[in-house]
Amino acid sequence: MITAFVLVEAKPDAIADLAPSIAEIAGVREAHSVAGGDTDLVAVLRVPDHAGIADVVTEHIARLPGVASTRTMIAFRSYSSEQLDAGYEGFGD
What we know:
The chain is of the alpha+beta class. Helices cover 30% and strands 32% of the residues.
């Protein structure tokens, strides 16, 4: 699976409606309203391949009313404390 982060710049009056709409798109794991810079929303994608990223971003997110622009970042490696903790499960108990 590939993880990608989509930074969404939205029209001001559309932000509140866009976040839940983005979160409902297949392949979107989470959507967050954020502050700072030109980014209004961040969508976290988990898809099987690069074509899945292209589909979610260009065919779904970018076409939503109120989306002014998107910028996509693809994760090379992912780390989480949950994964690290699971690796040591059962040791030292």
